[in-house]
Amino acid sequence: MQNPQSNHQKRYKGPALDKDLDKISFVEGAAESLGRRLIGPGLGVVFMALCAVVAAFHVPAWSLSDTLVLAAAAAVGAYMAMNIGANDVANNVGPAVGARAITLTTALILAAFFESAGALLVGDDVLETVSSGIILPAHQVNSAVFTTAMIAALVAAALWINMATLIGAPVSTTHSVIGGVVGAGIAAGGWGAVNWSTMAAIAASWVASPVLGALVAASFLAFIRYMILDREDRLQAARFWLPVLIGLLVGAFTAYLTIKGLDRLLAVPHGFVFVTAPLLGGAAWLFTIPLIARQSAGFDNRRQSIRGLFTGPLMVAAALLSFAHGANDVANAVGPVAAIVNVQLAHTDTVAQAMETEPVTTVPLWVSAIGAFGISLGLMLFGPRLIRVVGQRITKLNPVRAFCVSLAAAITVLIASGLGLPVSSTYIAVGAVFGVGFFREWSWRRRQGEGASRLFNRSIRNREAHNSRLLVRRTYLLTIMTAWMVTVPISATIAAIVFELLRLVLGLS
């Protein structure tokens, strides 16, 4: 007779083993998933450590404490640069990805290359504005206090941008870092330590840049609609006007690069731009005429076919915008680091004496490199999330609309960078997206007439359905505007708190 206890053991041996195996598999899967999530932060920590080592060996320090301070500043600047890449670069390639003109992988590679090029070639003027234009050199601020204030500003800006990225909010990195500089500067030297005339000019550019971006983008969309999409022979109009737009784009980019980029390599007279810009712009126009004609061979006259021709120009515009963003926003990452380097090199008691001894003329290449490669690394590791937010959730984009957004944002940022104003590329790009969306709404209502518009509104039974029919999502407009308004006070407050903590720890007077 068989033992009942043995039967009981046989009955539960299999299921118990399966449960144990399931638990082991679950733990292994969780560990693997956690490992994948930690790859990005791990690479970020390695990059920060490498930047600290490079800074420690590139600037002669008078003491070990100076070396440690400079290394810490470089590491925080690298952290800030990666946050910029994770949050702000989405504005450059998000429209192209949202329009499905390029894949996310292609967008990441394109943006990383041109971001680095713009930061390394053309970033000096804006670096000078952030590193020496916001805090008054004439104000007798102790050099050690000034260095601590710059580190506090970077820490505050990086923390705020990191939080915003985690919640999926595209905030202004320029707002963040300048708010941090202002908050730390006030905590260090009082209200008189801040150059309020420079701040007023920067604040005016914050207001003007989204409006200008919206107007320029809407104007481009109106032009393309009137001259190409609404024509009877759309295909022929596209073959004529697309090369013209590309030629204008290349000409403008050449003019900017000639004036603002080549001065780091060789002395170029400003009059030379009147030769190079028309020459290369005309060459691009002539070169793209047969390309557009060959690409459009066999196309029909539908709008959908015409939109496919904008994929190539959209990639050019996205590359131009990435270059401009690298030139403009590298200051947000390493502008305070550049200021610390100049104070360290001068080795004086006050900031005013440091600026007289080591005036900010040319930012060291290794300082620009920290920002350039940090932005690219942050984009590759953490950027895809916000790229989808900017490209898909504000308004529906196609290649034509995305081209208008990218081109308008590129032109606006390039002009601002040429003037040395650290405007927010987030403001400009998001303003351009909203400008395109609101122009679509306006043109639809204009075509349908007021009667059709009232009928359209009456046919919608509730507010939620009405909002879902709008071409621009108002909730995102409200959310983004709220984030813009709180960024400066939040980053300034965090910077003041961090500065006071550092001053207490370091025993600064």
UniProtKB/TrEMBL annotation:
GO terms for molecular function: phosphate transmembrane transporter activity. It comes from the Bacteria. It is a multi-pass membrane protein. The keyword Metal-binding does not apply. PANTHER family: PHOSPHATE TRANSPORTER (PTHR11101:SF80). Belongs to the inorganic phosphate transporter (PiT) (TC 2.A.20) family. This is Phosphate transporter. It comes from Roseibium aquae.
